[in-house]
Design goal:
This protein has a domain of about 50 residues. Helix content is about 0%, strand content about 40%. It contains no helices and six strands. The strands form two sheets. Strands 1-2-5 form a three-stranded antiparallel β-sheet, with no helix packed on it. It has a three-stranded antiparallel β-sheet with strand order 4-3-6, with no helix packed on it. A hairpin with a 7-residue loop joins β3 and β4.
Length: about 70
């Protein structure tokens, strides 16, 4: 089996991938995530991706017609 991270012997690679979810709230939708990384958004699934400065968890989503989110792990 080939490791996703060949230099990470003994590390569970799947714990390095943050979980991202959307939770409905009274004011709209909040984006929640687990793990360490920078929350980013884009107008389309293929980008362009931009970091959301000072993002806190949970992050309230805007009323944009379409907005995609990801957590970029460095």
């Amino acid at each position: 089996m080939t490791s996703l991270y060949p230099d990470s012997e003994g590390v569970d690679e799947f714990r390095l991938v943050p979980r991202l979810g959307a939770v409905r709230s009274a004011g709209g939708v909040n984006i929640e995530w687990e793990g360490v990384g920078q929350l980013q958004s884009a107008p389309a699934a293929n980008g362009p991706w931009a970091a959301i400065s000072n993002a806190v968890n949970p992050h309230p989503a805007t009323n944009a017609p379409a907005e995609f989110f990801r957590v970029k792990v460095y």
